Structures are given as C-alpha cells and as structure tokens.
C-alpha cells in the first residue's frame, strides 16, 4: 500500500473513514471489498492509539454466556472462528484457566456446567479451520492438576479450575496493519499521519473534510458522500466543531492500562485470578517470554492527547496484581512495558468504584439524532466483533447511498499472509528450506507474516552484510506497509512492542535501512533512534513525526 495524498484529494468517495484503529480499518476493508469508493485517514500511525492497548484475547463470548446474552455469544463465536480462519498466522488457540472455589456460582460443578454449555453452543466453532487452529472442548481440572500448573495457589481455598480455549492474537498491531493492507488491495485510499482539521458542510449535510498532512503541514480537501467518525478517544473532538452538543457514542471515558511484566511464574496458560481487595478478575496472558497483565481502569476526564499514567496508577495496579497470587512480588523493576488506552464508559465512576465501561459497540447516525446528514460516529470495544460491526455499518451506508452492494466476502477471504490451507505443511516447508534459521525464529516469522515470510526469506538471501533477515523484514514493511517513523517500524511492523527492545546493533541496522529507503539525513537518523529508544509506554509509541 502506498501513501498517495493526491489520490485522496483528486476524486470523490462514497465514504471517508476517520481513524485507523481496529474499527476504522475493518470498515475500510469491508467498504472497499463490497464496491464502495473508500478513503481512510489516521492522524498518527495505524493501531497506535487505544487499539494498541489489548490483552490480545479473541473472545468467544464466555462472559456473555454468564449474562445469558445468547445473540452476542453466537456473534462472538462466529467472529472468533472467522479470525482463526482468515488470519491463522496471527490468531491461535490459547488455553485459559480460572480457579474454582466453594459450592455456589464459582464452584467446580457450576463451572463445569458453564464449560459444557459453551461447548454445546459453539459445537461448529472448528468448521473449516486448520487443525492447528481447532479449539478443544473446555472442562474442569482437579485441585491437584491446577496446583501442578500454579503451585503458588496451594495455600488457598481453591477446589480446582475451569479450563477453556479462546483465540489469541500474536500481534494485534500487525493484525490491524494487515486489515488496512487488505483494504488498500481492494481499492481503498489509505494514509497515516493525516489529521482531520474540519468537516465540510453544505447546509446541514457533511460532504467531506479538510485534512492536514502532518508530515508537511499542507492541507487539502477530501470529498465524500458519507463520513464515518471512528476516531476512538478523539470522536468528541471531531464532533465539537459543530458549535453545539451532538450525540456522543460514549459520553464518558476511562483510562485502561495493561502491563507487560517479567518474573510471573506461569507461562503455559492464561490465568484469570481474583483480587480479594477488589473482588474482580485480572488476566495474566503469556506473550513472547513475558506476561501481559490486565486490566486496570480509572475515570479519565482530560484530553486524549494528554493521556499519562501516574506513579499512583502503577503502585495501585501492582498491589492489585500481587494480591491475586500468594507469593507474587511484582515491583516496578519487573515492568517491561506499559500499554495505555482511553476506554469508552457509560457514566461517571462512583467514588471508590471502577468506571462503568461501555458493554457493546455504539453507532450514532447523526441525521437521526442531531439533524446532520452524511455523518456516522462509531465507538467499538472488542477486537473480536469489529469485522461484524463493520459489515453492519457498511450495509447502512450503502442503503443511504441507494447503492446495491454485494454480500460481505470478509468472512472467508484471508488477510495478507493468511492464505494457509495447511499451516503445519508450510512450517515444514520453511524449516526444510532454511535449516540454518532456528525453529523459534522461523515460528516468529510465520506468526507475524504468514505466507509473506517466504518472500522475506527470499529477500534476505539476496542481502549481504550484517542482519540480512532483519533488514529484509524492514524493507518489506517500509515498501509495502507505510511506516513513517522508526517507532512505526519497530512497534507496529516488526512486532517489537514487548518491552524487550532490539539490541543496539540491530536497532541501528533497522534505522539505517529505513534511513536509506526514506533518504533521511544523518541528524534525522540519530533523532529517530533516540526517539524510539525512549519509549516506555505504547500509547502512540514514537508516532510523533521527527523533524
């Protein structure tokens, strides 16, 4: 995909999508593949805001089952299977455990019934999936079995554990970038570092936008019959320009924080553990030798541009995490990285309570709610259901445009790199072709790139000098995936957002490869290395253009 701003300015579009997170990307792909002329702009890098803050679990709706919300249970099961089928390199099964206690709702018997009901409702979940992506049945473990996995629980009152399997996204940033690439391949014009300055109005109808290229400062018009405001925490800023209060998808906000930590004892399963201080669950998800722990929430009332985590936030969160597991002693020194996001909430938080988060996506058609034609605002909350929500929104836009569009093809069309009918055979093929590359490194390449790993290996074979494989990854990303800064390349193309940075020599090799491709000056090269190396949180990590 190429960043061609002249194409954005020179033609009218059926739909302009503002915001390149998971929901904006999904809508761009859905609209373009169904025949709508589509544009997508993102003010920073794709998946650099709230969408970058994720525990990476692709949920099958188990929580909705607890609430007896069967329509959303079936929706989640369907969409999880779609991601396992269309992005098998990026999404894989993850075993999850939650300890059982007592004789009531948290008992082993009740949890067994819940696991059985979940398996019955999702009995078709593995249809058309690669065998390596099948989700086994759930069930329960005995006390002895759970203590073999988590011996630190031996002094607690647990009676066993519930075990189930969900999807797990190896790299959510690459998942979103892949969806944006698919949109571009289907004809969408996409661009990062393009900020919406204002919406164009003719009477009470939105007819496009004035946009600014953040790399040059130049402004230009984008004409569109409909604009979809998918700007996440910046949705309100888009709507504020009308000079009067418009209906907001989510009137309140919360800060959400996940920590990437080391020295957590369990690396084989995701754990749902309860904090006795708060009577709520925290999830601990193994990820590339570390563990993601989430999620901490508190009310947030400031500007999205000013989001910061405080020492009080970190101290309070570590106390809660340590209370979940006897003997856990996480300290600030164990934190490898911090993921932040602004999460939509339904109402202000009550004193000493967590915010009441939005439970489901919210779509506002401003013609109905505010008398503004040609404008939708969408607020999404889950990776799992973004594709299905996008299909609904695109169908609504087509009806308002009086355009006949085809059925959605995204449920069965692989994402770039995802055309893998036999994942095991592909793994064997690459291993046989490149026995010189460690198995773990090959598995990492396949998980990030799927079938594109073959092209990266071929490119690496043509390169002389140090770090040929890393430089081949960089070249593919720079030429095909639109990174504008070294931070974009490292954290959202090469899968480095783990809190475990590249060694200095590899960091410089990546930076010099990008400098040569982008024709950076020596000063720009050093500034980019310095900027990328200072990242401590992944809230828009290194996405501010370096002069």
Layout of secondary structure:
Layout: H1 5-9, E1 13-18, H2 22-33, E2 38-42, E3 57-58, H3 62-66, H4 70-86, E4 91-101, H5 108-121, E5 139-142, H6 143-149, E6 158-169, H7 172-185, E7 189-192, E8 194-202, E9 205-213, E10 219-229, H8 235-240, E11 252-261, E12 270-275, E13 280-287, E14 290-300, H9 311-323, E15 335-347, E16 356-357, E17 362-365, H10 366-369, E18 375-379, H11 386-401, H12 423-433, H13 439-449, H14 452-461, H15 468-480, H16 486-492, H17 504-518, H18 522-533
Helix pairs in contact: 2-7, 2-11, 14-15, 15-17, 17-18
Keywords:
Helicase, Ruva Protein, domain 3; D-Amino Acid Oxidase, Chain A, domain 2; globular; about 550 residues; FAD/NAD(P)-binding domain
Describe it for me?
This protein has 18 helices and 18 strands. It folds into 3 domains: 5-51 and 173-250 and 359-401, 3-Layer(bba) Sandwich (FAD/NAD(P)-binding domain); 91-167 and 252-357, D-Amino Acid Oxidase, subunit A, domain 2 (D-Amino Acid Oxidase, Chain A, domain 2); 423-533, Orthogonal Bundle (Helicase, Ruva Protein, domain 3), CATH 1.10.8. The chain is α+β, with helices and mostly antiparallel strands. α2 packs parallel to α7 (172-185), α14 (452-461) crosses α15 (468-480) and α15 packs parallel to α17. The protein has helices at residues 5-9, 22-33, 62-66, 70-86, 108-121, 143-149, 172-185, 235-240, 311-323, 366-369, 386-401, 423-433, 439-449, 452-461, 468-480, 486-492, 504-518, 522-533, and strands at 13-18, 38-42, 57-58, 91-101, 139-142, 158-169, 189-192, 194-202, 205-213, 219-229, 252-261, 270-275, 280-287, 290-300, 335-347, 356-357, 362-365, 375-379. Strands 3, 4, 5, 6, 11, 12, 13, 14, 15 and 16 form a 10-stranded mixed sheet that branches. Strands 1, 2, 7, 8, 9, 10, 17 and 18 form an 8-stranded mixed sheet that branches. The protein is 35% helix and 24% strand.
